[in-house]
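Why does residue order matter? Because the sequence determines the fold. Keep that principle in mind as you read this record.
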Amino acid sequence: MKSIFTLTAALILGLGIALGGYLGGQGLVKSRLGDRSVSVKGLSEREVKADLALWALRFVATGNELAETQAQVKANATAVTNFLKSHGFSDDEIELQAPQVTDRLAQAYSSGPVESRFIIAQQIVLRSTDVDKVAAANKDTSELVEQGVVLSNEYGPVRPSYLFTGIAALKPEMIEEATKRAREAAETFAADSGSSLGGIRRAWQGQFEILPRDNTPGTQETEQVAKTVRVVSTIEYLLVD
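Structure:
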């Protein structure tokens, strides 16, 4: 009698577990079916032109006599300033920065013979919104070499940096376009899967990127006047039957 009771209890328990598992599984499937979604990306790009150029022209003079070294730096500064003015730039666009003077004999940790006691470095920074004129002047820097001015590349290439500052005005239109293209992709996916597109579940707006228009090896974005502005929006849409 006891064994029959035990067997019956075991059957009831097993049936309960199986039924509970079935119902739980059905609930999980329904939940997943009711929460189906698709994640898509929308791209927007614009070709733009740089609207600001920055050009740091750095020159260095060395010597054992301070006055002579200073005179050499001053002559270089005059040559660079005249070069820029000859290409149509005004005084407001040209900034002569303070010189940096190094006395190598005064350095506490110097050792060995010193060939040139004084090192004087100075730079002129050109800031102009006429990027075409800056690009033209950059091609003529050999004129400075002919005058004995050697530009220093100690802190990087001696080339102008071309910047685009108008990205704020492009953002609303580009975000709208990226969102529209994402929705078009989602609608195509929904139609192919026999579903309809529901509302937005989640959305991520990517960072705006400024890239070189011509992506040649080793080319930096700031070296090109022509650029590409890009943004990618990622949107997750719900799918409904």
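The beta strands are 37-49, 52-63, 94-96, 100-103, 118-128, 161-163, 196-205, 209-212, 226-240.
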